[in-house]
Records
---
Amino acid sequence: MKLLKDINLKNKKVLVRVDFNVPLNKKKEVTDNTRIFAAKPTIDHIIQNQGVCILMTHLGRPEGKNRKLSIEHILDEVQKTLNRDVIFVNDCIGEKVKKAADSLKLGQVLLLENLRFYKQEAQGEEVFAKNLADIAEVYVNDAFGVSHRRHASTVAVAKYFQEKCAGLLLEQEKKAINQFLESKQHPVTAIIGGAKVSSKIPVIKNLLSSVDNLLIGGGMAYTFIKSKGGDVGKSIFEPDMIGICKELLIEATNKGVLLVLPEDVLAADKFDNNAQTRMLNASNIENGWMGLDIGEKTQKIFNKTINESKTILWNGPLGVFEMESFSKGTKAIAEAVVETTKKGSFSLVGGGDSVAALKKFNLVDKVSYVSTGGGAMLESLEGKTLPGIIALSK
């Protein structure tokens, strides 16, 4: 796979797949520009090397053309974040787009309309991909967050370019994930949370071959606890995953991985910030109560393991951190990861909720690397090479 530094960009039109799928409020204003800012180094590099930059992205999941999800809504934020004027064209293929691309001068940036206004994008259709490719001479994939999708703009389009490469963000993401998976700096610890174990099973299976410690929290922990014969009250769990959780516990033991489950939880009588709460044994939660955060004893156990680690992955919150009453566990783990990073350990944090937690606690710039990909990061951690990355080497 070629990198951006390997390509001569002078006087060439460069088609860049970025991931500007950013959150909007009711006024259609961007509420978080992280993904736009993450693409800035690639865009700056292209312009500094006398290339012309054409950006394509999706926004949301429109079914056909939907003005509410037009890229026009994010144009101001893109210009502010990139600190340069950006030309917008209200389509992504066709004569209007070709004319706009042909009119570009060195140093200019063109932003195309929402790729997903065309169903052919998600279908990975060849003709649509060819139409995208016709306006440029170089293709750059800098959209790690969608590189696990076999879409026209991430996979099919690449075959129409002799010159294609990874952008600086994609290069960084790949490097950070490989640094974790191939780390020689032990102990290696993975902290896996979130609501459902079913979405993380392939990741956990792969991690058992590369980590020393696996800390499980969040809603998924209750399926593991149930598999060991524990009582979880009315906590969330997945009955059809109990057998698989048993197998994972056995596999962890066989591979010498310390798999740690919560010992105590902050339980509530209802899913509400103002609910009545009690600290309960994680394996003996009474009927009518549900675990919504890890308890103080568990925080201390998890923190001790984190503090002794040299390489750390965190994916998924440890409780319902969006509610203030149940945010202490996730905050404690975030702070432990930050403290260990300060001592020289490598920390990789990814997944929308984990990143949201770091932002909530103002810790986002205090870990080694924050991934912009959710599903893409998980598939990479499963040991898969993403389709969008494979396409760059064909």
---
Amino acid sequence: MRKTKRRPFDKKQLREVLGISAKALSGYEAAFSHPSYRHEGAHVNLESFDRLEFLGDAILNYVICSKIYDLFPKASEGELSRLRSILVSRKILCRVARDIRLSKLLRLGKSLKRQPNTSKDKVLADSLEALLSAIYFDAGLIKVERFILRHFKPYLNAKRLFRLD
């Protein structure tokens, strides 16, 4: 198998694209190296993308649940669940990922690059979740919470949320 040429990854990219000042790059590099990229032999000594995505999903749910619990004190459990499911949906995650230009940092395998953009929505959503784990490991829960709330702020409005449903 022919190895894919690995482009350099640096702190400047994170600062320019996401506004993040990183202490350590390995978690971010793992979060932006999709398994399709790794399967081409590009880089195997990174944290698992899928594991980062798993934890990022949990972090996102925690932060969003806490926020909507505070924002909507009269909402029932069912209403809160509906709001949470809208906010953590692939549709919203893709919007946030596009807003922050996450695709500029993603490393995808050649076969995935050739697929239509609609099939890349899952990749964008998964990569955003993996990024949340990288921020958590690099800077802690408070920083990742700030990052999430800053980028999800436009959607933390009941009227807008129910229109997006």
